[in-house]
Amino acid sequence: MAAVLVVLRLMEIQFLVIRHTFEIYAAIVAILFLAIGIWVASKLIRPKTIVVEKEIPVLQFVFNEPEFLRLGISKRELEVLELMSAGLSNSEIANKLFVSENTVKTHVTRIFDKLDVRRRTQAVDKAKKLSLVR
């Protein structure tokens, strides 16, 4: 009797498979597309950069006092030079130091003469090389 029940169940399953073939194929295709979609999304969302943490030794700035004295730069001119190295314009430097723009221009001209340069970028570069500014 058990064998007959098993055979009847198999026949019922075969009948259901034959009767609902399209739905079964559609479900298999849907599951396949779902799996492909999940795989593609995981590839697109995953970051492509690798973060590597590494210690970088920081060199401390040491002011070059002998060069400062040799060039004869005043403390105010050094302040102007530091602000120039920060990328500030003459008017911004004047506002920060509470002086007129003409005073800043005078300081800048004297800095150029003492460092023997013609442009602000050259002055900042030379001052950095001489360890006068950061």
Strand content: under 5%
Helix content: over 70%
State the helix count: 7
For the record, the CATH class of the largest domain is Mainly Alpha
Integer average pLDDT: 86
CATH architecture of the largest domain: Orthogonal Bundle
- String of helices and strands: HHHHHHH
Beta-strand segment tally: 0
Structural class: mainly alpha
Name the CATH homologous superfamily of the largest domain. Answer: Winged helix-like DNA-binding domain superfamily/Winged helix DNA-binding domain
At the third CATH level, what is the topology name of the largest domain?
Answer: Arc Repressor Mutant, subunit A
- The N- and C-terminal alpha carbons lie at a distance of 96 Å
Largest sheet: none
Q: Provide the domain count.
A: 2
Shape: rod-shaped
Rg over CA atoms, rounded to whole Å, is 39 Å
- Which residue ranges are poorly predicted, with pLDDT under 50 across at least 5 consecutive positions? none
Structural account:
Helix content is 70%, strand content 0%. By secondary structure, the chain is mainly alpha-helical. Helix 4 crosses helix 7 and helix 6 packs across helix 7. It is rod-shaped.
Task: For this entry, give a set of tags.
rod-shaped; Arc Repressor Mutant, subunit A; mainly alpha; about 130 residues; 7 helices; single chain
List the helices and strands and how they pair.
Layout: H1 2-19, H2 21-45, H3 65-71, H4 75-85, H5 90-97, H6 101-115, H7 120-129
Helix pairs in contact: 4-6, 4-7, 5-6, 6-7
Short description:
About 70% of the residues lie in helices and about 0% in strands. It has helices at about 1-20, 20-45, 65-70, 75-85, 90-95, 100-115, 120-130.
